[in-house]
Structures are given as structure tokens and as C-alpha cells.
DNA sequence: TCCGATCTGGTCAAAACTGAACACATTTGT
DNA sequence: ACAAATGTGTTCAGTTTTGACCAGATCGGA
């Protein structure tokens, strides 16, 4: 990962991918925000006034059930943003969103992004492509939660966070992990013990240190790698080689 | 349901919501297609040349894993379409898509929809709003698979299909259900037995008849109602759309 | 009408996960 | 330095789920 991740901690890949004209219009509206670990950025059902672009931070999207339990369905790092659907259309978040890793983050008023989305095909492509990739992350999570063991899922989760934590110890208790993974604490403790005994991680009282990343990747299910690959790739043009389709050329409408 | 579902079987709510000018341009390109139950409309990773708009049919989106197992992450009836992300941007489907209920369906070439998406804000709003709702369905499924019992999930699934099957018996074997739900056949058989003994369903050899719909709703988890509500609402303007969680629901049957 | 394929339900044994409770260790705040 | 709060590992006793396998029922095609 080091290779691809050298970008400094004050950039967001989605913002950086904007065409210069859009970026120039958006830039003046960007404001750095800083949230503490665990803070709720937005409640489920809440109205959104800004979209959030993590630079070093990581956000987590949760689905909240009637009984108050909540489970992670996706997370967002500096490859993406929270609130794009709101910016594209809805203004309302179906999810609770919380800060899972502290770090740099900027926000941008919804209306500014709406205007760009309306006027720039390039921006639309970016937002839509990111949204599709986010959808695929959630879909992978459906499969993962149903078909993979707690241990595999935990590895996957640790790897995702490790990619973004710059070698820091991950600040999570077993209890917290159990909520994210939708399992119970006992299962997490067992998986954690097993990983620690295998020399892959070391932890104590809410700090998890990744010791053997390669090892973790081996124990993890495939879901980690698949999702990572998609997020690494989503900015590239889609299936360009297809014959006969020139989507770049705006054909006149029905004339 | 009867109220909202009386629309005839040759309409698709998403198509019907298009503004007249768009609809007029799109209509000449629509072609009815008819697929048999269980047919794969598109493989995971496949290139899409059309979007599909079910009228009476139901499509299922599956995430396929390396070992060949596949699990349902969402389904699409006549409130929506398959291939909209392709139409908006990507042309490639991350999912396998298969026919889960036979019925009317029309398709439309991607390029036609792309043009509309590019030129009409109204069309963009429709497609984006639907996509967001689809995302929320998948997110609900993440929570459901992780936190609800096989019996609850099966009720939810049967209800979703029953809404669309016009009173027909549902043509599914336990084995098939087990794949959709990501559990094993035995668990499905147990849940099915329990539901049958409670007088909620009756089945034999791949035909499941819903006997007591209300009862099923009581036993189902909340996920059914939440997702249904969102799909019923997504065409309304965002200010009024339903965002959050609804009232309490179901206890498990004791068996 | 019979054969073969399919579907369901049952057994059995094992594994995985759950839930509550509690002791101990470590950290934090005073 | 001490008390309180927090995190982890364990126990025990449950339930749920899994996987393999087979018997009987039923259906459809030859």
C-alpha cells in the first residue's frame, strides 16, 4: 500500500479528480472540520447541509435498527465523500455517520456541489462512479457478513482501517468492533485472541497494533482485496474499449 | 398493498415518472423482453448494453464470491430498473442479475438513457433518487443478515416477493431460498416448517403459498416495512420523502 | 405406467455463536 | 496513591447453524 498512499494528508482523491474549473469554484467553499473519534457527524434520517471529504479521517456509515443496534455498512476515507447523494439529490441521510479515525477533513455546502453536479458532466461522472463503487462495497458487505467467519471479517476490517491509519495503533475495543461487525463481543475476543496468538496483531485496552500485515491478508476473506481494488480503480474511465459508444461526444438531443 | 399495486402489469413506475418529453424520446427504443424464471440477465462483471425495466417481473441482484457462492443483495420490481448505474456512467455490472419472478419487462439501450441523463435534470433526479433507495435497501440487508434470525429474514423475503406475485404461489425451493438468504438449506427448512405449522404459509415441492400475510408481517423483522416504505416514497420530492425508521415489529415464533 | 430426478424432512455430530456473569488488570482522574 | 471506570479473558450453559447423508414423497418425462 505505501506506494499508492503516499499522497499527503491534506488531499482527497475525489476533490483532486475534479476538473480545474469546478475545483476552482468549489475551493473557496471548503472548510476544514475536525471531529473527535467516535463523534456522530450525522444521525440516520438527518438533514445534511454539507458533504464531507476526508483527508486523513475515516467515516463510517451505519444502518440503525429500531432496537437501537447499529451496524457498519460502508466506510469512507480520502478516496471519497459522505453526503454525495444528498448533494446529487436528497439532502437526507439514511445512515448514521460517525468518525472512525481522526484526521483531516473538509466539508462543502450541499448547494455548491449541487450546482456543479447540475452543470458539469465531469462532476456527474465522478459522483456517480463513486456512488456505484460505494454501493458495491455495501453489497460485498452483505455477502461477507452472511458467508464469512467472524475472524475473516475482523481481518478485513482491520486491514481497511490499517490502510488509513498510517501505522498508528487502531483505537478500538472489542466491544466497539462487535458493534461494527454485527456480532457479539465474545466472538470478537475469540477472534482477537486467535489473531494475537498467531502473531498477527497485538492489542491491549482499546489499542490494536497490526504486527503482520501480510499474515492478516492471508487470513482475511477476499472481500478486503476486492473492495480495495474497486476503490483504487473507480476514477479511471469505465470500459472505454467498447466499440460504438462514444459517450464523450454529446450528441444533440433527438434532432 | 392492494391499493398502491393496482397499476396494470404493463407499466413501470420509474418509466411512468419520466417527464413527457423524455418519455417520448425513450418510448420508441423500448423493447419488451421475456425471460424465463431463473435466467441470468447479466453476469457479474458483464457489460451492459441495456437497462431493464420490470413491469410484472422481478430481478435479483447477487454478489458473487470467488468460490462461486452468491447471495442476494437487492431486488428490483416495477418500481425501478436494472442497469441505471450503467446508464449513468459505468456500463459494467458488478452484480449477477437474475429473473426471480417471470413477468413483463422492457429494456432500453444504455446510450438512449445516457443521453437523457445528460440532458435532463428531471431524469437525473429520478435515476439518482432510485439509486439512493437501492443503496439503502442493500444497507438494510447488511443489517438484516447480520442481526436477524433466519426465520425473520425468510419472512421478509417472502413478503417482498408476495407483493409482486399477484397472489400466485411463489416458485422457490428451500435450496434456492438458502442461496438467496446466504444460509443453508437446513435452516430454511426449519424456518419453513415453523411458518407452516403456524399456519402462515403452505408449500410443497417448490411452490410456496402465502396463507396469512398479516401473520407473516408480524413475524418478519422490521426490514421489510422500512424498505417497502422507501421504495413507495422515492419518487416524491426529497423534502417529503421518508427518511428514518418506523414502528416496532415482530417477535419470533416459538417452534 | 414406470423410471429417474427433484424436493422435503429427518438423523446425527460438530461447530459457531450468544448472553450473562464475574474476576482481574490497567488506566484515568482526583 | 487511591478509587472508580473501563477493557479483557474466562466460565458456564444455552441456542442456532452447519454439513453430510439418507429415506420417502412427488413430479415429470419417456
Automatic annotation (TrEMBL), chains A, B:
<keyword id="KW-0238">DNA-binding</keyword>
<dbReference type="InterPro" id="IPR000595">
    <property type="entry name" value="cNMP-bd_dom"/>
</dbReference>
<dbReference type="Pfam" id="PF13545">
    <property type="entry name" value="HTH_Crp_2"/>
</dbReference>
<feature type="domain" description="Cyclic nucleotide-binding">
    <location>
        <begin position="14"/>
        <end position="91"/>
    </location>
</feature>
<dbReference type="InterPro" id="IPR014710">
    <property type="entry name" value="RmlC-like_jellyroll"/>
</dbReference>
<dbReference type="InterPro" id="IPR012318">
    <property type="entry name" value="HTH_CRP"/>
</dbReference>
<protein>
    <submittedName>
        <fullName>Crp/Fnr family transcriptional regulator</fullName>
    </submittedName>
</protein>
<dbReference type="InterPro" id="IPR036390">
    <property type="entry name" value="WH_DNA-bd_sf"/>
</dbReference>
<keyword id="KW-0805">Transcription regulation</keyword>
<keyword id="KW-0804">Transcription</keyword>
<dbReference type="InterPro" id="IPR018490">
    <property type="entry name" value="cNMP-bd_dom_sf"/>
</dbReference>
<dbReference type="InterPro" id="IPR050397">
    <property type="entry name" value="Env_Response_Regulators"/>
</dbReference>
Amino acid at each position: 500500500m505505501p506506494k499508492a498512499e503516499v499522497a499527503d494528508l491534506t488531499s482527497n482523491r475525489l476533490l483532486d479528480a475534479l476538473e480545474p474549473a469546478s475545483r476552482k469554484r468549489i475551493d473557496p467553499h471548503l472548510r476544514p472540520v475536525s471531529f473527535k473519534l467516535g463523534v456522530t457527524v450525522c444521525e440516520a434520517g438527518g438533514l445534511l447541509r454539507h458533504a464531507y471529504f476526508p483527508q486523513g479521517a475515516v467515516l463510517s456509515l451505519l444502518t440503525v435498527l429500531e432496537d437501537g443496534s447499529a451496524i457498519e455498512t460502508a466506510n469512507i476515507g480520502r478516496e471519497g465523500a459522505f453526503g454525495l447523494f444528498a448533494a446529487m439529490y436528497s439532502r437526507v441521510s439514511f445512515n448514521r455517520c460517525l468518525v472512525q479515525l481522526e484526521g483531516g477533513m473538509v466539508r462543502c455546502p450541499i448547494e455548491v456541489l449541487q450546482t456543479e453536479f447540475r452543470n458539469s458532466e465531469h462532476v456527474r461522472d465522478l459522483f456517480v462512479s463513486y456512488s456505484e463503487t460505494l454501493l458495491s462495497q455495501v453489497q460485498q458487505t452483505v455477502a461477507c457478513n452472511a458467508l464469512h467467519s467472524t475472524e475473516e471479517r475482523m481481518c478485513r476490517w482491520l486491514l481497511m482501517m490499517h490502510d488509513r491509519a498510517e501505522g498508528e495503533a487502531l483505537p478500538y475495543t472489542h466491544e466497539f468492533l462487535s458493534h461494527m461487525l454485527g456480532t457479539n463481543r465474545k466472538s470478537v475476543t475469540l477472534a482477537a485472541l486467535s489473531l494475537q496468538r498467531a502473531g498477527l496483531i497485538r492489542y491491549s485496552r482499546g489499542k490494536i497494533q497490526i504486527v503482520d500485515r501480510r499474515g492478516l491478508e492471508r487470513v482475511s476473506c477476499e472481500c478486503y482485496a476486492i473492495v480495495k481494488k474497486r476503490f483504487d480503480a473507480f476514477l479511471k474511465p469505465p470500459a472505454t474499449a467498447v466499440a460504438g459508444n462514444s459517450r464523450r461526444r454529446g450528441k444533440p438531443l433527438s434532432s
